[in-house]
Amino acid sequence: MATRLFEGKEHASYYQKFRFEPSQEIIDLIFSYVDERLPKPYGFAVDVGCGSGQNTRILSPYFEKVLGTDISEAQLEETKKAQGSPNVTYSLCPAEKVPVGDVSVDLLTASAAAHWFNIEKFLKEVDRILKPGGCLAFFSYLPYMEIHYKDRSEQMTQVFAEIEATLAPYEHEKFEHLRNGYKEIYEAIPYPDKRRIENIVTKIRMPLAGLMGLIQTFSMFQTYLRTEPEEAKEMIRTVEERFLQIIGTSSIETEVELCFQNFLVLASKPQ
Ligand SMILES: C[S@@+](CC[C@H](N)C(=O)[O-])C[C@H]1O[C@@H](n2cnc3c(N)ncnc32)[C@H](O)[C@@H]1O
What we know:
Layout: H1 9-18, H2 24-35, E1 42-48, H3 54-59, E2 63-70, H4 73-79, E3 88-92, E4 105-111, H5 119-129, E5 130-148, H6 153-167, H7 175-179, H8 183-188, E6 194-207, H9 208-215, H10 219-227, H11 229-247, E7 255-268
Helix pairs in contact: 1-4, 1-9, 6-11, 10-11
């Protein structure tokens, strides 16, 4: 049965507003891999578990056609709020059953999503739809984050670590795939041409308000909110106050830098 933790309308709206796009370094790594394996122009990309479409839109200039898919209607509804591209469409469906033809896809991506899927069924579906030489790219971030602000980075990061500790009991078991950098998912890919790249560091500047929004997109925060709504809201209020106090400002628009690590799994279906 599919894991459905991204169905709420408010959650989806936070996603659209506060989730980041994949970094240029991740995009470059994907396309230098794809460039070596597929002739240009590229035809068709599918982004599964696309959420509100941050990664799907990025693929648009590289492909003739891009399809974003997700099982959450609320998330797909949010894709309409971003500027659309004529070559990008979306479909409500599980990643384990994508409504496209056999051997039709040049690149299949899953951004912060593959850990939620039924891996065995999903990899069979990937094999059905990829063209020979077609590539897959699964990537995500590690859930340990640092917050940098002038000489207050240590205190800011400490508050973030405390949030992670509070949310730990609400973490889904599938998070284990994230914590081990998709090692098992990588091992399950049946293609000999594959690689796993770790320690891709992303640094993003964002206002404190954006950071507070991002925290509320985390699936474990949403589980906390459903289980203990008053405590979860209180945690957000307290954390915001502590961040402001540490920085010594009353402005939620003060910019901080978020720093975290990503990993990327790449593979190509044999010709
Ligand atoms: C953490 S979000 C990532 C969204 C987006 N790709 C991003 O990078 O921000 C995970 C998404 O995977 C979707 N999802 C979970 N299980 C799925 C499945 N079996 N098939 C398709 N989508 C799924 C969820 O609905 C959610 O939108």
